[in-house]
Write a structure and sequence with these properties.
Blueprint (H helix, E strand, L loop, with lengths): L1 H33 L16 E7 L3 H12 L8 E8 L5 H5 L5 E6 L5 H8 L7 E6 L3 E2 L3 H8 L5 E11 L6 H23 L9 E5 L13 H11 L3 E13 L4 H21 L6 H4 L1 H14 L1 H20 L7 H24 L5 H24 L14
Parallel strand pairs: 1-2, 1-4, 2-3, 6-8
Antiparallel strand pairs: 4-7, 5-8, 6-7
């Protein structure tokens, strides 16, 4: 029985963190061989659609000037961009700074209600057929709007996800090393997902939708970007992914700040699974159900628990078999896990002493983020995750 449990846990962990990436890569490439790829035409400069650049902000005075200038410098006709900023509760001068720019439409309320409510409140002000959402602390590539608009030439596309890139420096912390690697891997999987069928969700740093497809989101929603994009996908449209349209952001200031972010994302993931339960029906949603379960559901629920249980089940098997010194799979894998956790512990030690040795940071980040996922699950089930959360400090 222990060996059966071990094998199930092992398969879940390997498939979630490695196997699915291989499977979706194979499926995407097989499809490319047998199905003609849709070639999108070049944009017609005379028929470029108007777009709304929709930004929500709360106490972002330090970066507002840089973000606004970045928005003004985007390569797209200025008369076809509606700059819409939705702010609530800011008390650091953010709103006053924004109102110094006459090109911006600023809609402010003094009460802080959270990002989801800000989006719901702001959407009636959108006057364009396409709306591009972007966070106030991210900077967009100069050609981001054009790349996104190009994807919407396919009438089957209802949402376009841009790429998130983490700015890494040699002196950065474990959070930066781990977060940078995570997003590179996530971008690869999203690209394969989109090539095969549809990307599974979009990140709030940069994504766009057809305005008429927006549905008001429940006020207590924790992952607004994920819910908005997946509901569009579940209605029969696809989520395109374009790495050429990217948003850059600095990494979390420390691993503690990154843990705060991952815990609330994990809590939001559990909430999203409940609200998107219909997506688990393959008879209704086909391949999207398979992608959703493999890419998100396993990672947000079973896999983190399976990862840590694997060590204890492995230990019990060795106790039962008394095979500590036998050269066999269970013994070798158990000692491999010990080494990885020791390396993770060294990464934690180096992080606290500000020693920059990135080789140790990756196992530390991986372990810490799976721990955060479990805490996030518990926090959501106990009803302790507020929709108005504390922002993670950035480097």
């Amino acid at each position: 029985m222990l060996e059966i449990v071990f094998q199930i846990l092992f398969l879940v962990v390997v498939y979630t963190y490695l196997g699915y990436a291989v499977v979706i890569w194979i499926l995407a490439n097989v499809k490319q061989v047998f199905v003609d790829k849709t070639i999108l035409p070049d944009l017609d400069e005379k028929k470029l659609p108007a777009i709304c650049l929709f930004v929500t902000a709360y106490n972002e005075a330090e970066i507002i000037g840089q973000k606004v200038q970045n928005s003004f410098n985007l390569d797209y006709p200025k008369d076809k961009i509606q700059h819409l900023w939705i702010t609530d509760g800011s008390n650091d001068g953010t709103t006053e700074l924004l109102k110094k720019y006459p090109q911006l439409q600023v809609e402010h309320i003094p009460e802080r209600q959270g990002k989801t409510q800000a989006i719901n409140r702001g959407m009636p002000f959108v006057k364009t057929p396409l709306v591009i959402f972007s966070d106030s602390n991210t900077l967009l590539a100069e050609n981001a709007i054009r790349e996104i608009v190009r994807e919407f030439q396919d009438p089957k596309t209802g949402c376009v996800a841009g790429e998130k890139r983490i700015i890494e420096k040699e002196q950065d912390t474990a959070a930066a090393s781990g977060e940078g690697l995570y997003w590179r891997m996530e971008s690869f999987i999203k690209q394969m997902d989109a090539r095969f069928n549809s990307a599974v969700g979009a990140a709030g740093e940069l994504f766009a939708i057809r305005t008429h497809l927006f549905e008001e989101v429940e006020a207590d929603t924790l992952l607004d970007d994920f819910i908005i994009s997946l509901r569009i996908a579940s209605s029969g449209y696809r989520i395109a992914y374009t790495p050429e349209a990217y948003a850059t952001e600095t990494a979390s200031f420390s691993i503690e700040e990154e843990l705060k972010r991952k815990i609330r994302i994990a809590a939001g993931g559990v909430q999203s699974i409940g609200r998107l339960a219909h997506l688990l029906n393959p008879f209704q949603h086909g391949w999207l159900s398979f992608q959703y379960f493999s890419h998100k559901v396993l990672r947000w629920t079973i896999a983190p628990i399976a990862l840590f249980l694997l060590f204890f089940i492995n230990f019990l098997i060795l106790v039962d078999q008394r095979s500590w010194t036998t050269v066999g799979f269970y013994a070798c894998f158990f000692y491999f896990q010990i080494v990885m956790y020791l390396v993770a512990a060294m990464g934690w030690l180096f992080e606290n002493r500000q020693i920059r040795f990135k080789l140790f940071f990756i196992p530390f980040y991986f372990s810490a983020m799976n721990y955060a996922s479990i805490i996030g699950i518990i926090r959501y089930l106990k009803g302790r995750q507020s929709v108005v959360w504390e922002k993670a400090k950035r480097a």
